[in-house]
Amino acid sequence: IGSKFWEVICGEHGIQPTGHYDGDSDTLLDRINVYFTEGSGGRFVPRAVLLDLEPGTLDSIRASPYGEIFRPENFIFGQTGAGNNWAKGHYTDGAELIDLVMDTIRKEAEACDCLQGFQLAHSLGGGTGSGLGTLLMSKIREEYPDRIMCTFSVIPSSKVSDTVVEPYNATFSVHQLVEFANEVFCLDNEALYDICFKTLKLTAPAFGDLNHLISAVMSGITCSLRFPGQLNADLRKLAVNLVPFPRLHFFMVGFAPLTSRAAMNYRTLSVPELTHQMFEPKNMMCSANPSHGRYLTAAVLFRGKMATKEVDEEILNVQSKNSSYFVEWIPNHIIASICDVPPRSLKMSATFIGNSTAIQEMFKRVSEQFVGMFRRKAFVHWYTGEG
Question: Is 279 exposed, middle or buried (0-12, 13-18, 19+ CB in 10 A)?
């Protein structure tokens, strides 16, 4: 996911796989230092640390077209793999690596002028993403207590499952996420597959397609950090506006326009159209249905050339029509932000972040699976064996 995200960002900023800039307008370079440091010879290097407990995945990133852009010493990997075991990632194997990782992160953080926070992309099903990911969060929290910690977490789903012990790993992680993160964007393979099948009309979606959807959302959420716009929202503003109570920071995300490539030419994109599509349950990237709950708050991030007035009217419109879906005790639920630079292949797009009570469906699903397995003490010895 991380490498896909960097591909999209490099594309939007006009940076070639060698790290050299090749764009046509100054707005692309204006705030490029948010995600890149400038190396020698005008070469841009992502501020990223890539981390895994086995060498395989990182080797494949290194061999990919954009593999050469990352700083070599920021690839950190163990040799054994976590074997889908949360305890291995969190207590035994992960703990050996963590000091090295924190050193690398310190170096990156010291190169920043004004550090706003950290973004972490991980899955909660396996051992590394969940165990080591949460360990890393708690360490970063200790060292940078006042910085924003924002995670893109792929929650395991019943239909698309790699291993049996996913519910265990996810349950352990959620506890840590509640404690240490400021914003958690929940993604879900099941929902992403549904979007690929039903909306994008793909016959056999691969992980590449899923990662592409995720990177569209990640790019949308971070665009106002990277480009000048009429109304900007940064990580901290989002956190302030979206989290009414500190522990309720699990968001659903959606993206518009999602249309199949064949139908692309038959639809015009307008602000009302995007807004309508964005609030549709089937555009949500985690399998919880927002119409079963209420929105506490929501954020709408538009990209492209459009009038602020139009956006404001549209949002008032949504609030007045669907007032039953919003809670009464928060006055203006929806914050909007507009960014002038659209994504690469579109004229305008919109990203949706909602803090909805329906997210509990997702946790219920995981906890039912957890209880079902734990009642029979299935696979528990893997975890107790690691302590």
Answer: buried
